[in-house]
Each structure stands twice: as C-alpha cells, then as structure tokens.
Amino acid sequence: MRTSHAIALVVLSAACSYPPIQLSPGAAKIQVGRSDPPDNYELIGPITGQDGAGCGAMGGLGTYDRAFSRLRNQAASMGADYVAITTITEPHLASPGCFSNLFVINGMAYRKVAEAPSPIPVQTSPPSAGDNANLVEQLKQLKDLHAAGALSDEEFERAKARLLE
C-alpha cells in the first residue's frame, strides 16, 4: 500500500512540474531592477511575464523563474535593454474555492539610447528667507565680537568676507 502511494506522489509531482523556459537570443543581456533606469534610456512600454494557468488542481502552478524568463524573452522581442519591475503577484487564493495558479511579473520596458547618462547638474538655489536671517544673525555676532575687542579689524573683515561669499 505504501509503495502505491509513493508511486502516485511521484506521478503527480512529475505532472505538476514544468521544464525551464529557454531564453531567446539577447534575453540574458536584459537588465532587470526595481527602479527606473538612468536618463540614457527611453520608455518602450508596459511588459508582463507570467507563468501558470487555471484554478487549483485543475491548472498548473506558476513559478517565479518561469515568469521571469518569459518577462526577459518578451523584453528582448520588444528591443528592450532594461525592465523596471512594478509589481509581482504570486499564486494566491483568488476567491472562495479558487486558488489562482498564476505567477505574474509586471514592469516597464526601456531601451538604451545613449552610452552614458547625462551628467547631473549642480543646482544652486537662491538663498531663502531663513538663510538671510541666519546670515544677518552671524554678521551681528561678528560685529559684537569685534566691538568687544575679541577680533581685530583685519580678522573681522576676513570673517565678514567669508560670510558674504
């Protein structure tokens, strides 16, 4: 009796496992991440890789690896170089009596349009009202130190010049 259970278990588990999905040419080079790519990439559009089918035992349970391979193959067919993953949905209880077997990876596909991203410009912003108030306070403190004799005329002028730069 135990032998027949073991054989049935092996037959059932063999029927439920699927071979790995082969990557198409170029699919292995696709970079995948959770964030948007640098500005040397342009958006192609939404992309989905999924694996699994049906409901419960009446379908086939999806896997992350197979969904990920399908995502990369789809990206290669779109001419993408990068995929930013937006959501991952694992197999789950979809409704009472139905366990969804789908493993779904959604993302956005991008194509590289330049070898390097743009250099990040250094942005200087005008001083805010708070910065001006702080500067006035520091100048008052310098003046008080100078008036008290703690700073010479030369030291006072140098310190004031540094603050005003």
List the helices and strands and how they pair.
Layout: H1 2-16, E1 31-33, E2 41-51, H2 64-78, E3 82-89, E4 92-95, E5 98-100, E6 103-112, H3 129-147, H4 153-164
Parallel strand pairs: 1-3
Antiparallel strand pairs: 2-6, 3-6, 4-5
Summarize this, please?
This protein is of the alpha+beta class. It is 37% helix and 24% strand.
Structural write-up:
Mean pLDDT is 82; it is low at 1-15. Helix content is 37%, strand content 24%. It is an alpha+beta fold. It folds into two domains: 16-112, 2-Layer Sandwich (Translation Initiation Factor IF3); 129-164. A four-stranded mixed β-sheet has the order 1-3-6-2. A two-stranded antiparallel sheet has the order 4-5. The protein has helices at residues 2-16, 64-78, 129-147, 153-164; strands at 31-33, 41-51, 82-89, 92-95, 98-100, 103-112. The radius of gyration is 32 Å and the shape is elongated. The longest helix has 19 residues, at 129-147. A hairpin with a 2-residue loop joins strand 4 (92-95) and strand 5 (98-100). It starts with a helix and ends with a helix. It is built from four helices and six strands.
